[in-house]
Amino acid sequence: MALYGGSRDISFFNHINKELLEDVIEQVCSIYKISLNNTAANIYGESSEKIYADPVLLNCLITRGEQNTGDDDFGPDRKRSNSFAFYRRHLVDANIVPEIGDIILWQESYYEIDNLIENQLTVGKSPDYPSDTPYLNTFGKSWSIIAVTHLTREDKLNLKKSR
């Protein structure tokens, strides 16, 4: 029988994570979701101009990558990859699911999501994937979604700054 990772432990972890992200760390970013209804696609399902929905503010943990400057035919270009770790409960409360291609605004820089990692499990278990042992189906939890991103140019996005 599992000793840790039950509903009482999960409730304690939820409380600690919420307090840590909202009251101690306080890093906030905005997520712009692609608005599929407003984006015109060609016969291949592609679009040269994407339309984004209004931003959603979320608390997160940010891991900053090294900033590099590359030089190509068009001149110098800044490059940086960051990862943004979102607490799953905040995403559920905001009714948002990050997807590849969405844009994250942080410190007046825009980052496009390249990959999503969802493998941070408490006690190595998730009730979303049931076990052969019935009592273990209530143990564990998936905690976060980590968005791996790259810095993108503001002029290639169809975003309008507001006050």
Class by SSE composition: alpha+beta
Main sheet: which strands, in order across?
Answer: 2-1-5-6-9-4-3
Distance between the termini: 55 Å
Q: How many helix segments? A: 2
Mean pLDDT, all residues: 85
CA radius of gyration is: 19 Å
Strand content: 35-45%
Protein described:
The structure is a single chain. By secondary structure, the protein is α+β, with helices and mostly antiparallel strands. The chain has one domain. Helices cover 16% and strands 37% of the residues. The protein has 2 helices and 9 strands. The protein has a 7-stranded antiparallel sheet. A two-stranded antiparallel ribbon has the order 7-8. The radius of gyration is 19 Å and the shape is globular. The N and C termini lie far apart (55 Å). The mean pLDDT is 85.
Secondary-structure map:
Elements: H1 7-25, E1 28-32, E2 56-59, E3 61-72, E4 75-87, H2 88-94, E5 103-106, E6 109-117, E7 121-122, E8 141-142, E9 144-152
Antiparallel strand pairs: 1-2, 1-5, 3-4, 4-9, 5-6, 6-9, 7-8
Which features would summarize this protein structure in a list?
single chain; 9 strands; globular; 163 residues; 2 helices; two-stranded antiparallel sheet; 7-stranded antiparallel beta sheet; alpha+beta
Quick gist of this model?
The chain is of the alpha+beta class. The chain is 16% helix and 37% strand.
